[in-house]
Amino acid sequence: MAILSLEYYSEVLGMNRKVKIIYPEASKVADFTNTDIPVLYLLHGMSGNENSWLIRSGIDRLVRHSNLAVVMPSTDLGFYVNTTYGMNYFDAIAIELPQVIHNFFPNLSTKREKNFIAGLSMGGYGAYRIGLGTEQFSHVASLSGVLTFDGMEERFSENPAYWGGIFGNWETFKGSENEILALAREKKIKRPKLYAWCGKQDELFAGNEYAAQQLKELGYDLTYEKAEGTHDWYYWTKEIETVLNWLPINYVQEERLS
After folding, report:
1. Taking phi first (over 0 means left), then psi (-120 to 50 degrees means alpha), and beta for anything else, what does residue 120 get?
2. Considering only CA atoms, which of 55, 88, 93, 56 is closest in space to residue 73?
3. Were 36 and a residue from 27, 32, 162, 206 both cysteine, which residue would form a disulfide, CB within 3.0 to 4.6 Å?
């Protein structure tokens, strides 16, 4: 396994961007063709960047027995959308980044069934926004994600400069492609399988409960889990292992000392 740092120029954003990549051992992909290594795009939360998952969760340890490559980009505080102030993070990460990654690593799979996306908090929102807004990912996972802003309208009025810069005002946000449930209602040829987890003591728990119910009513193949827990890396580190087991990859959990 190798941990790589890649800096590249984003034509979409007009600036250099950094991404971290975990590349599997050759012995783990020996049974695959040269262009068939599965890929997980793993997204950070509001306080993070491309290093967060490596530093806080030890994701490199978790996947070292797998055949999975992991790509960890940064969206700053842009919520993985095309912002109203002209920074098109959605286009940069959902469309441009996979092309960049494949140019540097042509043996990573471009098959939909072997491309996955997951994230926590803001990154959980981003995973669903990208996963439902494109048809390039077969499995989409959220940990403590902002899957609905219903009940959080006051945030738009309390900090209009930030939220307006990201999404516009509440009226323009509702029903737009940036609202996860509105996006989920759009007719799609290929629907991804969905996974969501949230802790019961998390301030986003009620929103996750509501979003999960709505997604199931819309007919999505959703695995929804909940447990005791807060909005904290302690829980996300444990739950990302569940996500890895849920993905269709060759994953062997690391043996733990008793």
Report:
1. beta
2. 93
3. 32
Q: Write down the pLDDT at residue 257.
A: 39
pLDDT tens-digit series, residues 238-254: 999 999 999 998 766 65
Please give the average per-residue pLDDT across 155-181, as a whole number: 94
- What are the residues whose beta carbons fall under 8 Å from the beta carbon of 258, sequence distance 6 or more? none
Burial of 158 (0-12, 13-18, 19+ CB in 10 A): exposed
Burial of 167 (0-12, 13-18, 19+ CB in 10 A): buried
Q: Structure tokens of 62?
A: 């978790």
H-helix or E-strand spanning residue 9? strand 2-10
Of 89, 74, 160, the closest CA to residue 129 belongs to: 89
Both tokens of residue 39?
């890929």
Element (H, E) at 162: helix 160-167
Report whether 21 contacts 101 (CB < 8 A). yes
Query: CA geometry: angle at 67 spanning 130 and 45, to 5°?
Result: 35
Tell me what the mean pLDDT of segment 183-203 comes to: 94
pTM: 0.94
Task: Classify the C-alpha dihedral 94-152-199-185 as positive or negative.
Answer: negative
Which sequence spans correspond to the domains of the chain? 2-246
pLDDT at 258 > cutoff 60: no
| Tens-digit pLDDT profile for residues 63-72 | 998 999 999 9
CATH of 2-246, one of 3.40.50.2300, 6.10.140.1670, 3.40.50.1820, 3.40.50.10420: 3.40.50.1820
